[in-house]
Design brief:
The complex is a heterodimer of chains A (350) and B (404).
Chain A: H1 10-34, H2 39-64, H3 72-89, H4 96-119, H5 124-149, H6 169-188, H7 190-200, H8 202-207, H9 212-238, H10 248-261, H11 266-282, H12 290-304, H13 317-330, H14 333-349
Helix pairs in contact in A: 1-6, 2-6, 2-9, 2-10, 2-11, 3-4, 3-5, 3-9, 4-9, 6-7, 6-9, 7-9, 10-11, 13-14
Chain B: H1 2-25, H2 34-40, E1 43-50, H3 57-76, E2 84-91, H4 96-108, E3 113-115, H5 120-133, E4 137-139, E5 149-150, E6 155-156, E7 160-162, H6 167-180, E8 186-192, H7 196-212, E9 215-222, H8 230-239, E10 243-246, H9 250-262, E11 268-271, H10 284-287, E12 291-294, H11 302-315, H12 322-343, H13 351-363, E13 389-394, E14 397-403
Parallel strand pairs in B: 1-2, 1-3, 3-4, 4-7, 8-9, 8-10, 10-11, 11-12
Antiparallel strand pairs in B: 5-6, 12-13, 13-14
The chains are: A mainly alpha (350), B alpha/beta (404).
Chain lengths: 350, 404
């Protein structure tokens, strides 16, 4: 069911979103550089942004493509180490960081292709186990590659140190915006529809002539790319990388964000990525009990809303504006507005 | 009903979001505003950060208890120049990102100095934030070389100190000991590959052995979580070394010791301070004659006994170990330095104050009645110069034999 609304024309819709997002960036950035928001809060906000990228990108593979990969932290690790090594090698230049992020994403995407092609021939549990294995392999390789090959690259268990701390609020949230925009437009395009059809019924999709292997790999690779970018941001935020930070639990943590927000809902991923990252910090005053509260929230949500908070609902500002305009035009409250909307939809479909 | 509930839950989460934003908007003391915030109260705020929950909680809790014990004793005796010392304590779950968050939050709360972090990796992440602020910090447990000294750019982090040994120091010490006291000609090592502590100690041990002319006949690694070491140990047994070195934690060391005797290794076992506590994990017969170096020798002097008594009365014996003793010393060194800075009449939180504290830690800690050594002096990398305590397993009991 594709809703097409003609109330606000297409270019204007993008413009509204871009202007609002730019205003948000500008206001927050001014507050942070001006010192109104302290370093602690800006650090937490940056890690919220990184979590959002991770959750939204995993949502691509889990929610839209309908697979269950458990190796997202592996892609993040690949991206993080790639970016960190580039940043260390060519520190100082303004262009280095964006390039390092891009390279991190590309290398992660390359691994996505390598893993994706064999992995996506499998389904369900088998895919989960294979990707889980991939995540572990990445971690163990990063840990031991220096000893085995006899050079100093990842520095093993001691960790890669002194990475320039280049991640700022602005760069993080520009990446968040780009991630959401790219994944959103892919999903609204022909390719996105093909990906959704695979989730709904793979056999039916294949019988309609959709190249399922291609589209599954595409979804997987896009997901891996943004995980790599998030890894690069993480490296620049924290300044030291240790392979144990990218273990199995990290993958699960990201998956929890996606499931809690609602598989197939980008808004859900953004919301839960933000809340689940902020929650442990907000609960700091409860100290020892904070992990209990955090877990309790997860349990309660899963009992009362197993599809996740948002289900597959996606928030659209322009959709909301459309309704508002219709209501104002109709002037008769809910019923009138809906009637006009249906009428308009009917026309659009013709 | 379900719909209502889900809407309610969404609202709760959204309110949570806004609550976060709301607290952000509050006029929190920023880094720039810290001096006045810190100076206005009648307390001196000291941060304690460590992994108090999670996988390595036993270290974090020991450090927290040890440092808290000293500060409470100090407060009971009148504090520093009439001011009470207030502890700002945060948990980091052993995660570097959380460690940075915890540190920045502690800075927001107006701390003048920090005791921590606990794990080496977390501490290095915190050093990245603390070095630009020139915040005095002293760790009781981060043993990696990189905590105080960056070998890539050959710079020392002048604001960072520690009261524990470094990894390389222990490795070298035990190589010397094997050479001098055990007259070893050959040595073998078995170590945990994924553990920066084990790798750091091992590398230094092997380098020193080569310098001393001890032949390292074998070097075997194992993965974190392994419980069967027979294949590595059989290889070691075939080379018949004089000493077998364990730079690991005590649980693993206990298993390795038992299995090593089973495959017929006759070598003397030697270890680093991670071996402390091994007597509960292997039989007395297997361990007889094993030696390791420790930062703290239980009941070795009156001061140590007094510390142990006070600690046990407050926290029980479970967390009483090298980490709590080192943390007690760290708090002592830091509070002494704060006292000197206060006596000089400086304003807490200013650059001069921080520098005065750092200078005092470095130059004026030698006469302290610390419990793990006789006062602290620091070398050019801000590492403590202190003798190790050699512990020997005699009849299944870890016994203090000598300082070396």
């Amino acid at each position: 069911m594709i809703k097409k609304s003609t109330i606000i024309p297409m270019p204007l819709r993008y413009l509204i979103n871009i202007v609002l997002f730019a205003a948000f960036l500008f206001v927050m950035n001014t507050l942070i550089t001006g010192g109104t928001i302290s370093k602690y809060y800006s650090g937490v906000i940056s890690s919220i942004g990184i979590s959002i990228i991770l959750a939204v990108s995993l949502n691509m593979a889990t929610g839209y493509l309908g697979q269950l990969p458990l190796g997202h932290a592996g892609f993040m690790a690949v991206g993080a180490y790639t970016s960190a090594l580039i940043m260390k090698a060519a520190a100082g230049s303004l262009i280095t960081f964006p390039l390092a992020l891009l390279a991190g994403g590309l290398v992660a995407a390359l691994f996505g292709i390598l893993i994706g092609i064999p992995a996506l021939k499998l389904k369900g549990d088998y895919l989960a186990i294979l990707t889980l294995g991939f995540g572990q392999i990445i971690m163990v390789v990063l840990l031991n590659i220096d000893d085995v090959l006899g050079f100093k690259l990842t520095r093993g268990a001691a960790g890669l140190q002194k990475i320039p701390k280049t991640t700022t609020f602005l760069i993080t949230f520009i990446c968040v915006g780009i991630t959401c925009f790219v994944i959103h437009t892919i999903m609204k395009s022909r390719h996105g529809r093909a990906i959704l059809s695979i989730r709904e019924n793979e056999i039916a999709a294949e019988s309609c002539g959709i190249n399922t292997t291609y589209y599954k790999t595409l979804g997987f690779v896009v997901s891996a790319f943004f995980a790599g970018v998030a890894g690069g941001l993480y490296a620049g935020n924290i300044g030291i990388l240790n392979p144990s930070a990218f273990g199995f639990m990290k993958s699960i943590e990201i998956l929890v964000m996606v499931v809690l927000g609602g598989m197939g809902s980008m808004f859900g991923s953004v919301l839960s990525g933000g809340v689940l990252t902020a929650l442990p910090e907000l609960l700091r005053d409860f100290d020892k009990y904070r992990m209990v509260v955090y877990s309790l929230v997860l349990v309660v949500v899963m009992i009362f809303k197993p599809t996740g908070l948002m289900g597959t609902y996606d928030f659209s500002l322009n959709g909301l504006l459309d309704k508002l305009i219709l209501r104002l035009k109709g002037g008769k409250g809910d019923g009138g507005g809906k009637a006009v909307l249906v009428e308009k939809e009917g026309k659009a479909n013709e | 009903m379900k719909k209502f509930l889900s809407i309610a839950l969404v609202l709760v989460l959204i309110v949570g979001c806004f609550a976060a934003c709301g607290s952000k908007a509050k006029p929190e003391p920023t880094a720039g505003a810290t001096p006045s915030a810190a100076a206005s109260g009648d307390t001196i705020k000291v941060g304690i950060i460590g992994c108090q929950t999670g996988e390595y909680a036993q270290y974090g809790v020991s450090v927290m208890n040890g440092a808290t014990l000293y500060i409470e004793q100090l407060n009971a005796n009148g504090g520093i120049g009439g001011k009470q010392v207030e502890i700002v304590n945060y948990d980091n779950k052993g995660d570097s990102q959380e460690a940075i968050n915890a540190f920045n939050l502690a800075v927001d709360k107006g701390i003048t100095a920090l005791i921590g972090d606990v794990l080496s990796g977390n501490t290095m992440a915190v050093v990245g934030e603390a070095a630009p602020l020139n915040m005095p910090m002293i760790t009781a447990s981060a043993t990696a070389d990189g905590v105080t000294y960056d070998s890539e750019s050959d710079t020392v982090y002048s604001n960072v100190f520690r009261t524990c040994f470094t990894d390389p120091f222990q490795g070298e010490k035990m190589a010397n000991y094997a050479n001098e006291k055990l007259s070893a000609k050959t040595a073998a090592v078995i170590y945990e590959t994924g553990n920066d502590y084990a790798v750091g100690v091992k590398d230094a041990f092997i380098a020193k052995c080569e310098a001393l002319g001890i032949e390292v006949v074998d070097e075997e690694g194992y993965a974190t979580g392994d419980v069967d070491f027979k294949s590595q140990l059989t290889t070691i047994a075939s080379k018949n070394p004089d000493v077998l070195f364990f730079p690991n934690y005590y649980e693993d060391d206990g298993l390795i010791a038992t299995q090593a005797r089973e495959v017929g290794i006759k070598a003397t076992f030697i270890g680093s301070d991670g071996m402390s506590g091994i007597s509960k994990y292997a039989s007395a017969a297997d361990l007889e004659g094993t030696v390791y170096c420790a930062g703290y020798a239980p009941a070795s002097s009156d001061a140590v006994k007094a510390f142990e008594e006070a600690y046990t009365a407050k926290y029980g014996t479970d967390t009483l170990n090298m980490f709590s003793a080192n943390a007690y010393d760290a708090a002592m060194v830091l509070c002494n330095a704060l006292q000197i800075a206060e006596d000089a009449g400086l304003t807490a939180g200013t650059d001069e104050y921080k520098q005065a504290v750092i200078d005092a830690i470095r130059d004026k800690s030698a006469d302290l009645e610390s419990i793990t050594c006789n006062g602290y002096t620091f070398d050019e990398h801000n590492n403590p110069v202190k003798a190790t305590n050699i512990m020997k397993l005699v009849g299944g009991v870890e016994t203090f034999t000598e300082t070396y």
